[in-house]
Amino acid sequence: MNKPLAYRMRPRNLDEVVGQQHLVGKGKIIRRMVEAKMLSSMILYGPPGTGKTSIASAIAGSTRYAFRMLNAATDTKKDLQIVAEEAKMSGSVILMLDEVHRLDKTKQDFLLPYLENGKIILIGATTENPYISISPAIRSRTQIFEVKSLQEEDIKQAIEFSLSDTERGLGNKKVALDELALLHLTRATNGDLRSALNGLELAVKSTQADEEGITHLTLEIIEECIQKKAMVHDKKGDAHYDVISALQKSIRGSDVNAAMHYLARLVEAGDMLIICRRLMVIAYEDIGLANPQAAARTVTAVQAAEKLGLPEAKIPLAQAVTDLCLSPKSNSAYLAIDAALADIRKGLIGEVPDHLKDNHYSGAKELGRGIGYRYPHDAPDGWVPQQYLPDGLKNKKYYQPKATGKYEQALGNRYKQLEERQK
């Protein structure tokens, strides 16, 4: 049986890795390790289909080490022993261990001494947060790197490469991929390159070529092969972003019916990751301090949606949209950080006042660091008049409270009281 396209197109070296330039780009940590021939064990964590196995494969292809792949959940201790024996004979082996968070104690105890002496260079892959799901014993012997969702341009680049590669890809076939079909393939797979390539291969193999031997892939064919509908068959493919924008603006405008309509369009298109990310942005950008509990409830709803998956995910997502729509609105915190960032980018920084500087080191006192700092917790109400901003910015006001919710009204009253007392 032929191996899937996504498997065949795994990178042979770091230059072929799609995305993840924060790890494998020029001068970045993994490339430095490979170039210096100083590989150490690592854990790669991030969403499915983003290149964790690809990075491991590329590292192996860029070095002289043997490369073996196992799964922590399904492979046995005996499988690990075989890898260990090979490592003893060859010097070192790179072991790609998928689902590393499911490594049980017996396998873990067996691996630890080999990680210590460098005989096995572990590259663990997981979709779980390793700081929570992986044992401290393994974590202390590995470096932890986050693998991020691929961008549309990354997916597009990989698709085009697979269509031109005659050795491993689909380059031996004449494939005409419509512009809208390519656009949908890059967007609807939500950064999952494996899904994009698998959908592409299915489309190519299941579509009859025309009289000239050309396999013509339309938007409708790609929709069927990845089982996700496009928003609207418009010429520029802008509908995807238009619907996301309309969802946020409807929630901001407190129109729950319009927001539910746009949510339904995104759900029907299968864009759950987009929905979840956008709802969390809206919760903090548009509702903000007017109703902080709505933001907390939105995070909980998103977590539930991610656990459930579609179609059931629509239920907590609809609840979050209703909650956000009918909540009071405030963008005061959003405006405050933007105003502060604008000053920073204009060079309005200034020096930290001496009394606020760190004084936990030898010689700090002689430099005047921390002298005159007043500890607010020593005051009866936890506040003392004291300058915190640099001299050139000491009268700046970034936060402007709004009166659109009881919580921010209370914050605003406290803010004004402190301003008066500071004066």
CATH secondary-structure class of the largest domain = Alpha Beta
Q: Could you give the order of strands across the largest sheet?
A: 2-3-4-1-5
User: What's the CATH H-level homologous superfamily of the largest domain?
Assistant: P-loop containing nucleotide triphosphate hydrolases
C-alpha end-to-end distance: 78 Å
Query: What share of residues is helical?
Result: 40-55%
Tell me the structural class. alpha/beta
H/E series: HHHEHEHEHEHHEHEHHEHHHHHHHH
Runs in which pLDDT lies below 50 for 5 or more consecutive residues are: none
The CATH architecture of the largest domain can be given as 3-Layer(aba) Sandwich
Shape estimate? globular
Radius of gyration: 27 Å
Give the count of helical stretches: 19
Largest sheet: 5 strands, parallel
Portion of residues in beta strands equals 5-15%
Number of domains: 4
What is the fold-level CATH name, i.e. the topology of the largest domain?
A: Rossmann fold
What's the count of strands?
7
**Average residue pLDDT:** 89
GO molecular function: ATP binding; ATP hydrolysis activity; DNA binding; enzyme activator activity; single-stranded DNA helicase activity
InterPro entries: AAA+_ATPase, AAA_assoc_2, AAA_ATPase_RarA/MGS1/WRNIP1, ATPase_AAA_core, DNA_pol3_clamp-load_cplx_C, MgsA_C, P-loop_NTPase
Keywords: ATP-binding, Nucleotide-binding
Organism: Vagococcus elongatus
Secondary structure elements and their pairing?
Elements: H1 5-8, H2 21-24, H3 29-35, E1 42-45, H4 52-61, E2 66-71, H5 77-90, E3 93-98, H6 105-117, E4 120-126, H7 130-133, H8 136-139, E5 143-146, H9 152-164, E6 174-177, H10 179-188, H11 193-206, E7 214-217, H12 219-226, H13 239-252, H14 256-268, H15 272-287, H16 292-308, H17 314-325, H18 332-345, H19 406-422
Helix pairs in contact: 5-6, 9-10, 9-11, 10-12, 11-12, 13-14, 13-15, 14-17, 15-16, 15-17, 16-17
GO biological process, one term: DNA-templated DNA replication
Pfam families: AAA (PF00004), AAA_assoc_2 (PF16193), MgsA_C (PF12002)
InterPro entries: AAA+_ATPase (IPR003593), AAA_assoc_2 (IPR032423), AAA_ATPase_RarA/MGS1/WRNIP1 (IPR051314), ATPase_AAA_core (IPR003959), DNA_pol3_clamp-load_cplx_C (IPR008921), MgsA_C (IPR021886), P-loop_NTPase (IPR027417)
